[in-house]
Amino acid sequence: MDVLPKDSNRHVKVKQKSAVLNMLKRLDKIRFRGHKRDEFLDLAESPNASDTECGDEIPVKIPRTSLRENEELRDPAGPGTINMASGVQDFNRTESDRLNEIKGHLEIALLEKHFLQEELRKLREETNVETLKQELEKERQRRLELEQKISDVLKARTEELPTTQQPAKPPTQVNGTDKRSHTVCSRVQKWFYDKFGEYIEDFRFQPEENTVETEEPLSARRLTENMRRLKRGAKPVTNFVKNLSALSDWYSVYTSAIAFIIYMNAVWHGWAIPMFLFLAILRLSLNYLIARGWRIQWSIVPEVSEPIEPPKEDLTVSEKFQLVLDVAQKAQNLFGKMADILEKIKNLFMWVQPEITQKLYIVLWAAFIASCLLPYRIIGLAMGLYAGIKFFLIDFIFKRCPRLRAKYDTPYIIWTNLPTDPQLKERSNATVSRRLQTAASRSYVGSNAPTGVNKDEDSSRFHTTKRGNFHEIFNLSENERPLTACENGWRCCLINRDRKMPTDYIRNGVLYVTENYLCFESSKSGSSKRNKVIKLTDITDIQKYKVLSVLPGSGMGIAVSTPSTQKPLVFGAMVHRDEAFETISSQHAKITSASSNSES
């Protein structure tokens, strides 16, 4: 009686394991499409399965067994239980391992299902695009059919119009000539519509297409190529301007004399416009001959052929940086000149300088009155003669005599005296600062200034920085003040290589030079300990310094050596480095020479 429960439990375990085997087989059919599991030999014969093949209706191949094995499996209490136990020992993994494997297979199957759904969605979107294209093509066909119908209706109406406009006549008066005239009119109208109908359709309004231009990425090769293209494109214009200036400067005396005589004769006889048109035709004819291979040089100033540098394919980092700096400098100067011209014209018409704009105002009124009273032939003759004399004679004299030009050349005086916007801003700031200084000096002199103090000493006491009085910040005497070359100081950063802390290694601030000291004011708020004061007589060496060797050029720093520092102090990132170096070195030489003379 005790054996039966054990055998029944063993039979249940065998059934559970066989069910697990069947589940694994189905999962392998779902998951593995290339490499099959080695545990199940019948999976090699099964075809590729998908997610839809995981139903209960999937046939599972049962391995062929002998009659004895079937009987042993059928009767677990019989003698075949020992063979079944040996077969089950091949799968002696725990149930938790099998469950984990089943979970892994399920996750893989779900992932494949997700990927298949994404592919199906993409395919559906593509099919939607195709359907949309088909519907669009159908709509186009319908539109063409409607346009054809409209054109047919219009033709029919044009053919019916003559018949409706003719008065009703008795049938006895209609003869063959009337029918012929009716057919001829309809044919003429049909021919006219067929001939000019296309031009009428061209005047149909359509919405403009907004096209966005794609911007090219920054490239050194493309940049150099565009610069050369711009130079080649502007070469004809520059050559034309050079020839005009050569005519005005009498570079070739014979050419300028002939041009002056021909121009004045043409203006006197009223042939100025035909002369300019003839010169344009002559220039185009010469360009045609040059394009055909003729060697013709029609220029007053001889052209100088510049050497063409071959483009470099591989540029280093410093060369690319130098190229960008060159282009930026040229663009800056070009934009500055254009901005100056536009701002001067704007200020001329906006009465920024009333005495200059008043002259233009009077000239415009005089020209208006003359155009109303005098005939245009006399006005054109006067303007042409003035332009010729001004271009060939007056400008030549003014260029050779600058003092006469500064006194009597009215257009030149007006143009040079017109201010730009930065100049107006500087003037307004200067006037405001002068008013503040005069008010402060008056109040100080009236209250605290002792007798016998001159203006220089008084102004030195009132020189201040952003944080207060100059001598109070650096603990100097009241006579110490910045030199005129550096009243506002130079923006820079102090690099003290003796310090190891990052906060003390680099400091941003402003550098000043006085008569006896080199003063650095830190931009960070705090005590005056962060400021640096160096006596000029203590400086042993001053040199230009390059902080980053990778960058091109001579650098933007100044190295100052003193006995108290092991390594030189570096004032880097100075925009006006050369100006600061000259000022400091000249003042240092002046102080050292004065001290050596006093000692001797």
TrEMBL record:
Gene3D superfamilies: Pleckstrin-homology domain (PH domain)/Phosphotyrosine-binding domain (PTB) (2.30.29.30). It comes from the Eukaryota. Residues 106-156 form a coiled coil. It comes from Crocodylus porosus (Saltwater crocodile). The chain crosses the membrane at residues 272-290, 360-376. Interacts with RTN4 (isoform B). SMART domains: GRAM. It is found in: Endoplasmic reticulum membrane; Mitochondrion membrane. InterPro entries: GRAM, GRAMDC4, GRAMDC4_PH-GRAM, PH-like_dom_sf. The keyword Cell membrane does not apply. It is a multi-pass membrane protein. Residues 160-180 are annotated as: Disordered. One of its GO terms (biological process) is negative regulation of toll-like receptor 9 signaling pathway. GO terms for cellular component: endoplasmic reticulum membrane; mitochondrial membrane. This is GRAM domain-containing protein 4. Residues 162-173 have a biased composition (Low complexity).
